[in-house]
Write a structure and sequence with these properties.
Length: 351
Protein backbone atom coordinates (compact mmCIF):
# COMPACT_ATOMS: atom_id res chain seq x y z
CA UNK A 1 0.00 0.00 0.00
CA UNK A 2 0.92 3.67 -0.08
CA UNK A 3 1.44 5.74 3.07
CA UNK A 4 2.84 9.07 4.24
CA UNK A 5 6.07 8.15 6.01
CA UNK A 6 8.05 10.35 8.41
CA UNK A 7 11.77 10.12 7.72
CA UNK A 8 13.03 12.45 10.45
CA UNK A 9 12.63 16.20 11.03
CA UNK A 10 11.51 18.01 7.87
CA UNK A 11 11.38 14.86 5.71
CA UNK A 12 8.27 12.96 4.64
CA UNK A 13 7.24 11.06 1.51
CA UNK A 14 4.39 9.06 0.00
CA UNK A 15 5.97 5.62 -0.05
CA UNK A 16 5.22 2.01 -0.93
CA UNK A 17 5.07 0.12 2.36
CA UNK A 18 3.86 -3.38 3.38
CA UNK A 19 0.12 -3.73 4.06
CA UNK A 20 -0.71 -3.81 7.79
CA UNK A 21 -1.71 -7.21 9.21
CA UNK A 22 -3.75 -8.27 12.23
CA UNK A 23 -1.40 -8.79 15.17
CA UNK A 24 -3.70 -9.17 18.18
CA UNK A 25 -7.17 -10.74 18.34
CA UNK A 26 -8.53 -7.29 19.33
CA UNK A 27 -7.24 -5.58 16.13
CA UNK A 28 -9.08 -4.49 13.00
CA UNK A 29 -7.70 -3.56 9.59
CA UNK A 30 -9.46 -0.48 8.23
CA UNK A 31 -9.39 0.90 4.69
CA UNK A 32 -8.94 4.66 5.09
CA UNK A 33 -11.68 6.43 3.12
CA UNK A 34 -11.00 9.93 4.45
CA UNK A 35 -8.22 11.31 6.61
CA UNK A 36 -6.75 14.71 7.42
CA UNK A 37 -3.72 16.52 8.79
CA UNK A 38 -3.54 17.93 12.32
CA UNK A 39 -1.37 20.70 13.74
CA UNK A 40 0.29 17.95 15.78
CA UNK A 41 1.56 16.36 12.54
CA UNK A 42 3.29 19.66 11.75
CA UNK A 43 4.87 19.59 15.23
CA UNK A 44 6.12 16.04 14.54
CA UNK A 45 7.63 17.14 11.22
CA UNK A 46 9.44 19.99 12.94
CA UNK A 47 11.04 17.37 15.21
CA UNK A 48 9.13 18.59 18.31
CA UNK A 49 7.85 15.09 19.16
CA UNK A 50 11.00 12.94 19.57
CA UNK A 51 8.97 9.83 20.48
CA UNK A 52 8.00 9.53 16.79
CA UNK A 53 10.63 7.34 15.16
CA UNK A 54 11.82 7.47 11.55
CA UNK A 55 9.76 5.25 9.29
CA UNK A 56 6.52 5.98 11.16
CA UNK A 57 3.32 6.46 9.12
CA UNK A 58 1.70 9.70 10.37
CA UNK A 59 -1.96 10.58 11.02
CA UNK A 60 -4.41 9.99 13.89
CA UNK A 61 -7.73 11.05 12.36
CA UNK A 62 -9.79 9.04 9.92
CA UNK A 63 -13.00 7.51 8.67
CA UNK A 64 -12.89 4.15 6.97
CA UNK A 65 -14.34 0.77 6.16
CA UNK A 66 -13.41 -2.38 8.07
CA UNK A 67 -11.67 -5.00 5.91
CA UNK A 68 -10.69 -7.53 8.60
CA UNK A 69 -11.30 -8.08 12.31
CA UNK A 70 -9.44 -10.16 14.90
CA UNK A 71 -11.19 -13.12 16.50
CA UNK A 72 -12.17 -11.30 19.69
CA UNK A 73 -13.63 -8.13 18.11
CA UNK A 74 -17.36 -8.11 18.93
CA UNK A 75 -18.69 -4.60 18.23
CA UNK A 76 -17.63 -4.34 14.58
CA UNK A 77 -17.59 -6.48 11.51
CA UNK A 78 -16.21 -6.49 7.97
CA UNK A 79 -17.80 -3.81 5.80
CA UNK A 80 -18.74 -1.45 8.67
CA UNK A 81 -18.12 2.29 8.17
CA UNK A 82 -16.30 3.57 11.25
CA UNK A 83 -14.78 6.65 12.83
CA UNK A 84 -11.24 6.08 14.10
CA UNK A 85 -10.68 7.72 17.49
CA UNK A 86 -7.31 9.46 17.84
CA UNK A 87 -7.10 7.62 21.19
CA UNK A 88 -6.68 3.84 21.13
CA UNK A 89 -7.93 2.33 24.37
CA UNK A 90 -8.72 -1.13 25.72
CA UNK A 91 -11.83 -0.06 27.66
CA UNK A 92 -11.11 -2.39 30.58
CA UNK A 93 -7.95 -1.22 32.36
CA UNK A 94 -8.15 0.89 35.53
CA UNK A 95 -7.81 4.18 33.67
CA UNK A 96 -10.24 3.26 30.89
CA UNK A 97 -12.85 2.23 33.47
CA UNK A 98 -12.59 5.65 35.09
CA UNK A 99 -13.02 7.42 31.74
CA UNK A 100 -9.36 8.22 31.24
CA UNK A 101 -8.97 6.55 27.84
CA UNK A 102 -6.02 8.83 27.13
CA UNK A 103 -4.06 6.96 29.79
CA UNK A 104 -5.00 3.43 28.76
CA UNK A 105 -2.51 1.07 30.37
CA UNK A 106 -2.78 -1.52 27.62
CA UNK A 107 -1.32 0.73 24.93
CA UNK A 108 1.19 -0.93 22.67
CA UNK A 109 4.04 1.46 23.21
CA UNK A 110 3.64 0.86 26.98
CA UNK A 111 3.81 4.63 27.33
CA UNK A 112 0.59 4.94 29.33
CA UNK A 113 -0.67 7.31 26.64
CA UNK A 114 -3.70 6.50 24.49
CA UNK A 115 -2.50 8.63 21.58
CA UNK A 116 -0.42 6.03 19.77
CA UNK A 117 -1.68 6.25 16.15
CA UNK A 118 0.77 8.14 13.97
CA UNK A 119 2.92 8.47 17.08
CA UNK A 120 4.06 5.12 18.52
CA UNK A 121 2.40 2.89 15.90
CA UNK A 122 1.59 3.50 12.22
CA UNK A 123 -1.24 5.95 11.60
CA UNK A 124 -4.07 6.89 9.27
CA UNK A 125 -2.41 8.84 6.44
CA UNK A 126 -2.28 5.61 4.49
CA UNK A 127 -4.46 3.41 2.34
CA UNK A 128 -4.87 0.92 5.22
CA UNK A 129 -4.38 1.10 8.96
CA UNK A 130 -4.29 -1.43 11.79
CA UNK A 131 -6.42 -0.30 14.74
CA UNK A 132 -5.65 -1.93 18.09
CA UNK A 133 -8.49 -2.44 20.62
CA UNK A 134 -10.98 -2.02 17.79
CA UNK A 135 -14.05 -2.54 20.00
CA UNK A 136 -13.32 0.56 22.06
CA UNK A 137 -11.38 2.65 19.51
CA UNK A 138 -13.73 2.54 16.49
CA UNK A 139 -17.23 4.01 16.35
CA UNK A 140 -19.98 2.89 13.99
CA UNK A 141 -20.93 5.61 11.54
CA UNK A 142 -24.64 6.07 10.76
CA UNK A 143 -25.50 6.38 7.06
CA UNK A 144 -26.74 9.94 7.35
CA UNK A 145 -23.39 11.23 8.65
CA UNK A 146 -20.93 12.17 5.89
CA UNK A 147 -17.24 11.36 6.05
CA UNK A 148 -16.56 15.11 6.20
CA UNK A 149 -18.54 15.59 9.39
CA UNK A 150 -17.42 12.31 10.96
CA UNK A 151 -13.76 13.13 10.51
CA UNK A 152 -14.07 16.02 12.98
CA UNK A 153 -15.03 13.49 15.64
CA UNK A 154 -11.70 11.64 15.54
CA UNK A 155 -9.97 14.42 17.46
CA UNK A 156 -10.93 18.08 17.27
CA UNK A 157 -14.59 18.10 18.37
CA UNK A 158 -13.97 15.85 21.42
CA UNK A 159 -10.81 17.85 22.23
CA UNK A 160 -12.59 21.19 22.17
CA UNK A 161 -15.57 19.88 24.11
CA UNK A 162 -13.76 17.76 26.72
CA UNK A 163 -10.64 19.80 27.43
CA UNK A 164 -12.11 23.24 26.70
CA UNK A 165 -15.80 23.17 27.63
CA UNK A 166 -16.06 20.34 30.17
CA UNK A 167 -12.73 20.89 31.95
CA UNK A 168 -13.47 24.64 31.82
CA UNK A 169 -16.74 23.92 33.70
CA UNK A 170 -18.82 26.05 31.34
CA UNK A 171 -22.32 26.54 32.73
CA UNK A 172 -25.51 28.33 31.66
CA UNK A 173 -25.09 32.07 31.30
CA UNK A 174 -21.28 32.02 31.23
CA UNK A 175 -19.08 34.22 29.13
CA UNK A 176 -16.34 32.12 27.55
CA UNK A 177 -13.25 33.58 25.86
CA UNK A 178 -11.41 31.28 23.46
CA UNK A 179 -7.86 32.38 22.65
CA UNK A 180 -6.86 30.80 19.32
CA UNK A 181 -9.48 30.05 16.66
CA UNK A 182 -7.75 27.20 14.85
CA UNK A 183 -9.64 23.92 14.36
CA UNK A 184 -9.45 23.14 18.09
CA UNK A 185 -10.48 26.61 19.29
CA UNK A 186 -13.34 26.57 16.77
CA UNK A 187 -14.42 23.21 18.21
CA UNK A 188 -14.56 24.83 21.66
CA UNK A 189 -16.64 27.67 20.22
CA UNK A 190 -18.96 25.25 18.39
CA UNK A 191 -19.63 23.18 21.54
CA UNK A 192 -19.69 25.85 24.31
CA UNK A 193 -23.40 26.34 23.68
CA UNK A 194 -24.09 22.74 24.73
CA UNK A 195 -23.55 23.83 28.32
CA UNK A 196 -25.38 27.11 27.91
CA UNK A 197 -22.63 29.68 27.35
CA UNK A 198 -24.30 33.05 26.84
CA UNK A 199 -21.37 34.86 25.20
CA UNK A 200 -18.50 33.20 23.35
CA UNK A 201 -15.65 35.55 22.52
CA UNK A 202 -13.17 34.39 19.87
CA UNK A 203 -9.69 35.93 20.01
CA UNK A 204 -7.16 35.39 17.23
CA UNK A 205 -4.60 37.31 15.17
CA UNK A 206 -6.02 36.07 11.86
CA UNK A 207 -9.16 37.79 10.53
CA UNK A 208 -10.07 34.76 8.41
CA UNK A 209 -10.13 32.57 11.54
CA UNK A 210 -12.26 35.16 13.34
CA UNK A 211 -14.75 35.14 10.45
CA UNK A 212 -14.98 31.34 10.76
CA UNK A 213 -15.44 31.68 14.52
CA UNK A 214 -18.53 33.81 13.94
CA UNK A 215 -19.91 31.15 11.59
CA UNK A 216 -19.57 28.37 14.17
CA UNK A 217 -21.08 30.27 17.09
CA UNK A 218 -18.87 33.06 18.44
CA UNK A 219 -20.96 36.00 19.62
CA UNK A 220 -17.96 38.38 19.52
CA UNK A 221 -14.61 38.38 17.72
CA UNK A 222 -11.56 40.29 18.87
CA UNK A 223 -8.18 40.60 17.19
CA UNK A 224 -5.35 40.01 19.64
CA UNK A 225 -3.27 42.21 17.33
CA UNK A 226 -5.27 45.14 18.66
CA UNK A 227 -3.60 46.66 21.71
CA UNK A 228 -6.90 46.89 23.57
CA UNK A 229 -8.05 43.22 23.39
CA UNK A 230 -8.25 43.03 27.17
CA UNK A 231 -10.34 46.20 27.46
CA UNK A 232 -12.63 44.92 24.71
CA UNK A 233 -13.23 41.67 26.61
CA UNK A 234 -13.75 43.44 29.93
CA UNK A 235 -16.28 45.80 28.35
CA UNK A 236 -18.33 42.71 27.37
CA UNK A 237 -18.33 41.44 30.98
CA UNK A 238 -19.23 44.60 32.93
CA UNK A 239 -15.56 44.97 33.78
CA UNK A 240 -15.32 41.66 35.68
CA UNK A 241 -13.52 39.36 33.23
CA UNK A 242 -14.76 36.11 31.72
CA UNK A 243 -16.10 33.08 33.58
CA UNK A 244 -14.03 30.69 31.45
CA UNK A 245 -10.89 31.44 29.41
CA UNK A 246 -9.78 28.67 27.04
CA UNK A 247 -6.20 28.55 25.75
CA UNK A 248 -6.17 26.90 22.29
CA UNK A 249 -2.80 27.92 20.86
CA UNK A 250 -0.04 26.41 23.02
CA UNK A 251 2.37 29.31 23.65
CA UNK A 252 3.20 31.19 26.87
CA UNK A 253 1.75 34.49 25.56
CA UNK A 254 -1.73 33.08 25.02
CA UNK A 255 -1.77 31.25 28.36
CA UNK A 256 -0.93 34.58 29.95
CA UNK A 257 -3.78 36.23 28.01
CA UNK A 258 -6.19 33.71 29.55
CA UNK A 259 -4.89 34.46 33.05
CA UNK A 260 -5.44 38.16 32.40
CA UNK A 261 -8.98 37.63 31.08
CA UNK A 262 -10.47 35.36 33.76
CA UNK A 263 -12.51 36.83 36.59
CA UNK A 264 -11.94 35.85 40.24
CA UNK A 265 -13.49 32.42 40.82
CA UNK A 266 -13.33 31.60 37.11
CA UNK A 267 -11.72 28.81 35.13
CA UNK A 268 -8.76 28.68 32.76
CA UNK A 269 -8.88 25.60 30.54
CA UNK A 270 -5.60 24.98 28.78
CA UNK A 271 -6.07 22.93 25.60
CA UNK A 272 -2.91 23.95 23.73
CA UNK A 273 0.13 21.68 23.67
CA UNK A 274 3.06 23.69 24.99
CA UNK A 275 6.61 23.22 23.75
CA UNK A 276 8.17 25.21 26.57
CA UNK A 277 7.40 26.09 30.16
CA UNK A 278 4.90 28.76 31.06
CA UNK A 279 5.17 31.27 33.89
CA UNK A 280 2.58 30.61 36.59
CA UNK A 281 2.18 33.52 39.04
CA UNK A 282 0.69 31.55 41.92
CA UNK A 283 1.52 34.40 44.29
CA UNK A 284 -1.09 36.51 42.47
CA UNK A 285 -3.48 33.81 41.34
CA UNK A 286 -4.23 32.02 44.62
CA UNK A 287 -6.20 34.93 46.02
CA UNK A 288 -8.32 35.11 42.85
CA UNK A 289 -9.65 31.52 43.36
CA UNK A 290 -8.76 30.57 39.80
CA UNK A 291 -9.18 26.97 38.67
CA UNK A 292 -6.69 25.86 36.00
CA UNK A 293 -7.26 22.65 34.04
CA UNK A 294 -5.42 20.85 31.25
CA UNK A 295 -5.30 17.48 29.59
CA UNK A 296 -5.08 15.12 26.66
CA UNK A 297 -8.42 14.39 25.02
CA UNK A 298 -10.05 11.09 26.08
CA UNK A 299 -12.64 10.96 23.25
CA UNK A 300 -15.13 9.58 25.79
CA UNK A 301 -17.68 12.07 24.38
CA UNK A 302 -17.22 10.95 20.76
CA UNK A 303 -20.41 8.86 20.74
CA UNK A 304 -22.48 11.67 22.28
CA UNK A 305 -21.11 14.27 19.85
CA UNK A 306 -21.80 11.88 16.96
CA UNK A 307 -25.49 11.86 17.92
CA UNK A 308 -25.56 15.66 17.78
CA UNK A 309 -23.76 15.69 14.41
CA UNK A 310 -26.24 13.13 13.06
CA UNK A 311 -29.10 15.47 14.03
CA UNK A 312 -27.32 18.48 12.52
CA UNK A 313 -27.06 20.11 15.94
CA UNK A 314 -23.41 21.12 15.53
CA UNK A 315 -22.05 23.51 12.87
CA UNK A 316 -19.59 21.08 11.30
CA UNK A 317 -19.83 22.11 7.64
CA UNK A 318 -17.63 25.19 8.04
CA UNK A 319 -14.59 23.23 9.22
CA UNK A 320 -13.68 21.61 5.90
CA UNK A 321 -11.96 24.14 3.64
CA UNK A 322 -10.04 21.93 1.19
CA UNK A 323 -10.53 18.53 -0.42
CA UNK A 324 -7.72 16.58 -2.06
CA UNK A 325 -6.93 13.03 -3.09
CA UNK A 326 -5.17 10.86 -0.51
CA UNK A 327 -2.19 10.39 -2.82
CA UNK A 328 -1.78 14.20 -2.94
CA UNK A 329 -1.02 14.20 0.79
CA UNK A 330 2.42 15.77 0.35
CA UNK A 331 0.85 18.75 -1.45
CA UNK A 332 -1.88 18.80 1.21
CA UNK A 333 0.78 19.35 3.88
CA UNK A 334 1.90 22.45 1.94
CA UNK A 335 -1.67 23.76 1.80
CA UNK A 336 -2.30 23.05 5.49
CA UNK A 337 1.10 24.34 6.59
CA UNK A 338 0.50 27.69 4.85
CA UNK A 339 -2.90 28.36 6.41
CA UNK A 340 -2.35 32.13 6.60
CA UNK A 341 -2.17 32.25 2.78
CA UNK A 342 -4.41 29.31 1.83
CA UNK A 343 -7.04 29.86 4.58
CA UNK A 344 -6.91 26.11 5.20
CA UNK A 345 -8.64 24.80 8.31
CA UNK A 346 -9.25 21.11 7.69
CA UNK A 347 -7.83 19.62 4.49
CA UNK A 348 -9.73 16.42 3.69
CA UNK A 349 -7.89 13.61 1.92
CA UNK A 350 -10.07 10.94 0.34
CA UNK A 351 -9.33 7.74 -1.52
P1 LIG B 1 -3.64 25.92 14.97
O1 LIG B 1 -2.19 26.22 15.00
O2 LIG B 1 -4.30 25.54 13.71
O3 LIG B 1 -4.45 27.19 15.54
C1 LIG B 1 -3.92 28.07 16.45
C2 LIG B 1 -4.61 29.41 16.25
O4 LIG B 1 -4.03 30.31 17.21
C3 LIG B 1 -4.39 30.04 14.87
O5 LIG B 1 -5.64 30.43 14.31
C4 LIG B 1 -3.49 31.25 15.17
O6 LIG B 1 -3.76 32.36 14.31
C5 LIG B 1 -3.87 31.56 16.61
N1 LIG B 1 -2.87 32.32 17.34
C6 LIG B 1 -1.52 32.22 17.29
N2 LIG B 1 -0.96 33.14 18.11
C7 LIG B 1 -1.98 33.83 18.68
C8 LIG B 1 -2.05 34.91 19.60
N3 LIG B 1 -0.95 35.48 20.10
N4 LIG B 1 -3.28 35.36 19.96
C9 LIG B 1 -4.39 34.79 19.46
N5 LIG B 1 -4.39 33.79 18.58
C10 LIG B 1 -3.19 33.31 18.20
O7 LIG B 1 -3.86 24.80 16.09
P2 LIG B 1 -5.09 23.80 16.37
O8 LIG B 1 -4.99 22.62 15.48
O9 LIG B 1 -6.37 24.56 16.43
O10 LIG B 1 -4.68 23.32 17.83
C11 LIG B 1 -4.63 24.25 18.91
C12 LIG B 1 -3.79 23.68 20.03
O11 LIG B 1 -4.46 22.53 20.59
C13 LIG B 1 -2.40 23.19 19.60
O12 LIG B 1 -1.46 23.53 20.57
C14 LIG B 1 -2.61 21.67 19.54
O13 LIG B 1 -1.38 20.98 19.66
C15 LIG B 1 -3.52 21.48 20.70
N6 LIG B 1 -4.25 20.19 20.79
C16 LIG B 1 -4.45 19.71 22.04
C17 LIG B 1 -5.11 18.52 22.21
C18 LIG B 1 -5.34 17.99 23.60
O14 LIG B 1 -5.73 16.83 23.74
N7 LIG B 1 -5.14 18.79 24.63
C19 LIG B 1 -5.59 17.80 21.10
C20 LIG B 1 -5.38 18.34 19.83
C21 LIG B 1 -4.71 19.54 19.69
ZN1 LIG C 1 -7.33 0.86 28.90
Amino acid sequence: MKALVYHGPGIKSWDDVPDPKLIDATDAIVRVDTTTICGTDLHILKGDVPTVSEGRILGHEGVGTILEVGTSVRNHTVGDRVIISCISSCGVCTYCRSGNFSHCLADEGSSGIGWILGHLIDGTQAELVRIPFADNSLYQLPNQVSDDAALLLSDILPTGFEIGVQYGRVKPGDTVAVVGAGPVGLAVIATAGLYGAAQVIAIDLDQNRLDLAKQVGATHCISSGAGDWKEQVFSLTDGYGVDVAVEAVGIPATFDMCIQLVRPGGNVANVGVHGKSVQLDLQDLWIKNINISMGLVNTTTLGMLLKLVAQQKLPVDQFVTHRMALDDVVAAYETFGNAAQTHALKVLLSR
